[in-house]
């Protein structure tokens, strides 16, 4: 069976090699320029796009956001140090819905399995998302960082499954690309497909997705200066 990026969970024994995951991620994120344009957020700073399920290879809906940033927002090195390195720990600091993270298995410096616990306003119960996180930094011009998250099914590995959080299991797949542009700006692009699991109607999830993924940009840019302040204090 040919592997493809999808929000359907993958068993550990079916995970393809790291370079294959990155190649698929590159192809997917490169295709997003052709997706349908959607709403813009943050006073036009964040553009969203979507790929309807009838056009997607996996027949599931996909969403994308794109934003460009000056050095005053963040440099390429700052983006990569916070998103390509220790990503789950950093996301927990600026995404308020993330309440707990667990490194289920460390595979290498560029690949590991993480379990996230997201909480939502009542009556929605906590959701657990377990993903294989793969990162790659290409230092040739233009410098490009790639982050691919694919949903992992640990049900056949009882020891690893014990490390997952308790709650309804959701699933998501995501590809992020950070590119240093010629003018010194940075493009941050992310494409994702997911389901929160449980009984939440899909139309509610899909209609709220553009705003949710756009909010990650705003939250990141609000959080990043606090890390600069800590660095300055420590020096």
From TrEMBL:
Gene3D superfamilies: 3.30.530.20. Residues 62-224 form the DUF3074 domain. Pfam families: DUF3074. InterPro entries: DUF3074, START-like_dom_sf. It comes from the Eukaryota. PANTHER family: DUF3074 DOMAIN-CONTAINING PROTEIN, EXPRESSED PROTEIN. This is DUF3074 domain-containing protein.
């Amino acid at each position: 069976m040919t592997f493809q990026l999808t929000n359907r969970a993958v068993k550990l024994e079916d995970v393809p090699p790291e370079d294959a995951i990155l190649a698929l991620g590159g192809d997917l994120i490169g295709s997003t320029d052709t997706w349908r344009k959607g709403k813009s957020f943050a006073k036009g700073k964040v553009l969203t796009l979507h790929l309807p399920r009838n056009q997607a290879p996996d027949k599931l809906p996909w969403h994308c956001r794109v934003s460009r940033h000056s050095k005053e927002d963040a440099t390429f090195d700052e983006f990569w140090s916070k998103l390509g390195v220790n990503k789950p720990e950093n996301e927990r600091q600026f995404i308020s819905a993330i309440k707990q993270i667990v490194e289920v298995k460390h595979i290498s410096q560029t690949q590991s399995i993480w379990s996230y616990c997201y909480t939502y306003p009542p009556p929605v119960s906590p959701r657990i998302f377990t993903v294989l996180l793969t990162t790659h930094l290409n230092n040739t011009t233009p410098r490009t960082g790639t982050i691919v998250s694919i949903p992992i099914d640990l049900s056949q590995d009882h020891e690893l499954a014990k490390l997952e959080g308790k709650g309804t299991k959701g699933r998501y797949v995501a590809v992020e690309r950070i590119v240093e542009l010629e003018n010194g700006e940075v493009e941050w692009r992310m494409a994702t497909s997911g389901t929160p699991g449980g009984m939440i109607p899909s139309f509610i999830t899909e209609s709220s997705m553009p705003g949710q993924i756009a909010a990650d940009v705003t939250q990141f840019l609000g959080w990043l200066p606090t890390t600069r302040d800590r660095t300055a204090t420590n020096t």
